[in-house]
Specification:
- The protein is α/β, with parallel strands linked by helices.
- It has two domains: about 170 residues, Aspartate Aminotransferase, domain 1; about 220 residues, Type I PLP-dependent aspartate aminotransferase-like (Major domain) (Aspartate Aminotransferase, domain 2, 3-Layer(aba) Sandwich), CATH 3.40.640.
- About 40% of the residues lie in helices and about 15% in strands.
- The chain has 15 helices and 15 strands.
- The longest helix is centred in the last third of the chain and has 22 residues.
- The protein is globular, with a radius of gyration of 22 Å.
- Bound molecules: 4'-deoxy-4'-aminopyridoxal-5'-phosphate (PMP) and glutamic acid.
- Glutamic acid binds next to helix 2.
């Protein structure tokens, strides 16, 4: 007789979450590639650059110097100080050591914040299209994500009236992500003032995910919402990390800055969870934040060139419309004109998931369907890959889309989509 517990032995919460679709699709593309399939992967949410030399060296030195023991949960003091200095220099924010949390990546930090802040019955306002982990981390804390839409016409920045209507007594926090993944939305100072004012009226927290702050285009100026006023700072937790700016995705280093009491609780959660971010990587973080920043310039200049190319190519494609991102390294083209079309086998492509599946199968291009981000009319393309790969991928996408034909229900699909627009 089997003694294994049945599926009823799993916690209720696992039914409410799903694996990160971005990580799943990226891993699937890597697997196909390793099997020899000629895949162009435009799915990955990570820079294709190497971790800067001086950061690598600091990590190796830390290893050789025996810095391999547990560290304080809040990070080694040298890293805490480097973060404090960075926030002062770049964002005009003043924090003390007790206001800094360090974790194993921004995702880990956001998770601990969700655990420290959200209770059952709390609502968490998230602007769609959103980064995939925000709703699931709210679910994992038992809270309810309240998803509100943003419009292309507003640069995917939340309209203050829509936000005002969506907050209320139960709102615990508004999650803000500027520059944003997946759209590349960038909030100006005025946009941020409107959000801060509404958070003030409602008395809720602001969780400001600023992980793409350094990757901005055409002179867009990143402003941290916490820098608007002492009142806004007191209700904001700023989240950042080294994954994107310093090409350190696999090394896992992120941080948060906020009011002392909140950070104390976030540290407490992490002391029962990850204990500390990898010790030697923390020394790499010190080198990254305090060292030569020219690596950033080189990377952003390359991203800018690729962004211009990709946006130009997509907007020249029949039935595709692409917003020009202000930051991050993704484009989020609207492709809904292809919904209701049929591939060569007569299969109707009903949504972004079907279209992404079709592009993987026929064009061997891996990208993430917009549905994963709460924007089903779109696809997400990462341009954190070489120009050659981008050109090849876009040629393949153009060719594959050009071969689709309207199916019998095409008009119905398009009317339905038009009615859903706002
Ligand atoms: N926030 C956003 C918007 C992201 O795109 C990512 C991507 N991984 C993260 C947070 C988490 O980054 P990490 O855990 O690698 O620091
Ligand atoms: N944030 C990246 C992305 O959106 C990495 C994957 C993840 O952490 O989900 O693709």
């Amino acid at each position: 007789m089997s003694t294994e517990p049945g599926t009823t032995a799993f916690a209720e919460r696992v039914k409410k979450v799903k694996p990160s679709p971005t990580l799943r699709i990226t891993a699937e593309a890597a697997r196909l590639k390793s099997e020899g399939v000629d895949i162009v992967s435009l799915a990955a949410g990570e820079p294709d650059f190497n971790t800067p030399d001086h950061v690598q060296e600091a990590i190796v030195k830390a290893l050789r110097d025996g810095k391999t023991r547990y560290t304080p949960t809040s990070g080694v003091p040298q890293l805490t100080d480097a973060i404090i200095q960075k926030l002062k220099n770049d964002n005009g924010l003043t924090y003390g050591r007790n206001q800094i949390n360090v974790g194993a990546g921004a995702k880990n930090v956001l998770y601990a914040i969700a655990q420290a802040l959200f209770d059952a019955r709390d609502e968490v306002v998230i602007c769609a299209p959103f980064w995939v982990s925000y709703p699931d981390q709210a679910f994992l804390a038992g809270a309810r994500p309240v998803i509100i839409r943003t419009r292309e016409a507003d640069g995917f920045v939340v309209h203050p009236e829509v936000l005002r209507k969506s907050v209320g007594r139960k709102t615990k926090a508004i999650i803000l992500n500027s520059p944003g993944n997946p759209t590349g939305a960038g909030y100006t100072r005025d946009d941020l003032k409107a959000v801060a004012e509404i958070a003030e009226e409602c008395g809720c927290w602001i969780i400001s995910d600023e992980i793409y702050e350094k990757i901005v285009y055409n002179g867009f100026e990143h402003v941290s919402i916490a820098s608007l006023s002492p009142e806004t700072c007191a209700r904001t937790v700023v989240v950042n990390g080294l994954s994107k700016s310093y090409a350190m995705t696999g090394l896992r280093l992120g941080y948060a800055a906020g009011p002392e009491e909140l950070i104390r609780n976030v540290n407490m959660i992490q002391s029962q969870d990850v204990s500390n971010a990898p010790s030697i990587v923390q020394w790499g973080g010190v080198a990254a934040l305090t060292g030569d920043q020219s690596c950033l310039k080189t990377m952003v200049a390359a991203f800018q060139g690729r962004k211009d190319y990709v946006v130009g190519r997509l907007n020249a494609m029949e039935g595709v419309w692409c917003f020009e991102p202000r930051g991050a390294f993704y484009v989020f083209p609207r492709v809904a004109r292809y919904f209701g079309m049929q591939d060569a086998d007569g299969t109707e492509l009903k949504d972004s998931t079907a279209l992404a599946g079709f592009l993987l199968k026929t064009a061997r291009v891996s990208l993430v369907p917009g549905a994963a981000f709460g924007g089903d009319e779109y696809l997400r393309i990462s341009f954190a890959t070489s120009m050659d790969q981008l050109k090849e991928g876009l040629d393949r996408i153009e060719d594959a889309l050009g071969r689709l034909k309207p199916g019998p229900h095409y008009a119905n699909y398009q009317v339905h989509l038009e009615q859903k627009r706002f």
